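Lab notes, practical 5.
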Amino acid sequence: MPRLHELQRAFAAAIVEGKGLPSVTSMQGGPSWRSLALYRRLIRNNYTQALRITYPALHRLIGGRYFG
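Output from the prediction step:
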């Protein structure tokens, strides 16, 4: 059985790399990469919002196209 930190690393890598976890299926029985897509979108939205808040002048200069 994998250790918790191994599962956490695999989960993070699957989100970043856009792949699924081979040992995991979604609750609907489909591939795990579909379920992980939700996490990917949420993380990207959070990063985008953090950049918008941190760099408002840059956001105004380059527009929303580069901020999500």
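Observations recorded by the TA: The first helix runs from residue 4 to 17. The chain has one domain: 4-66.
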